[in-house]
Amino acid sequence: MKTPFFLLAGFLTASALAQDIPYREYEPFERYEPIVSGDLMLSGTYQHWKDPANLDFRMAGNPDENWKLNWKFMDPPFNQTVHGGHFAVDRGERLFKQLDVYGTFASCLSDRSGSPRNLRAGYPRWRADLGRVAGLEEVIEHCGAKQGRVLQNGSYDNSAISIYLASIGNGQPINIDVTAGPMKASFERGRRLFHAKAGAFNFSCASCHTHNIGKRLRGNVITTIYGDVAHYPVYRTQYMLQSLQLRFAECNLDTRTQPLRPGSQPYTDLEVFVTALTNGYPISVPAERDW
Amino acid sequence: MRLLLAGLALLLATPVWCADIPSDAGVDGGKTMAPQIVVNSGRLEWAPHKRDLTRWLTLSYQDRRATPEPTRFDMKLPLAGDKARGKTLAWEWCIACHTLPGDEWPGNVGSPMVHYKQYKHADPLIFQQIFDARVFNPNTVMPAFGTFGLLAEQEIRDLVAYLQSIE
User: Fold this and answer.
1) Domains in chain A, please, with CATH?
2) Which of A26, A67, A71, A142 is placed for a possible disulfide with A221 were both Cys, Cβ 3.0 to 4.6 Å?
């Protein structure tokens, strides 16, 4: 009498488990090096922008060539005009000094070690107090909340503090270690997510930024994924001040994918992945980008 | 009996995950929200996005929905497409990647569509390429406009008629 029950139970369990693994598609996986010179094996444009002090500005004026500079010619000092990024740095400095009167804000951000100058270059990192890998903006929100200040991840004030902290570390190479522990796990998840197809168009990040670099989407030329984090948060001519994770949200909307909230685990993993691909490239803020 | 209950519980729980929009998605009231930056504010505002995108897969780890699988569609002849409507659709949907005649800023991620008539492709083949190109190439980046519900059958027929008319 019991046998049919077990058969039924087994069948139901098996069907439930079979349903548990939904069908997914991935862009063919690519090898990436967690250092910015790895671009030489991806797009090869690194030779044109590896030295920010010696960019070939003749290329910047040529619409067929400017993408090969990875738009680094819009990093400071790209011209004498003061753009919104500079205002954000000023605002960030004021906010940071307000919050850091007793030094508690800086020590919270740096987890009681090191100078605020070294923060941008070393984030995202494992935060034992939070129990997870966190980006700088997420930690700014966390440490602001400790003092009762609302600094939501992705908001203008949060990104302003982040861009101020980056500006006092200008010139330092990005340096995060993804060779071991939770950072490595996060990097690997981010790498996988970078190739995961999603949204109405079934695009992954890698659909464009790995296998179609240098090709045109009407007026825009697709650039490499290496070296981009050095100028974030960035002043966007169409978007005010934008943190890296809000850029992911905008990328998602552009490719008709439902965006996630900044600070969510997938976006943090993607941030770890693309930050590792900027390892070794000097921070340069406030920068401006049209796209 | 315990196994049966466990199986039932799993079975009942699974469709709930499948239908659910993940909690870390920027969704409010079941609609896609876009983040809005407010200058000199510590709050991030969210406003309704011009398109609702909640029905498609997100990058969230909680998202248990499946990607629609590659689907073959048997297009019945005759084509009965309107090439004028097809041109309007092509300049809306195809032009970012494909070069169309008359475009000053051609995209080149996809193959150029100029002189398309010369290839003499069969109508059902072009229809399938637009409906779901993954049938021909599993690694294609071309969106599956039919399978993902972006274009209706008649719209794809109009696009085929337009492509077949490009001298």
Assistant:
1) 36-75+174-289 (1.10.760.10), 84-168 (1.10.760)
2) A67
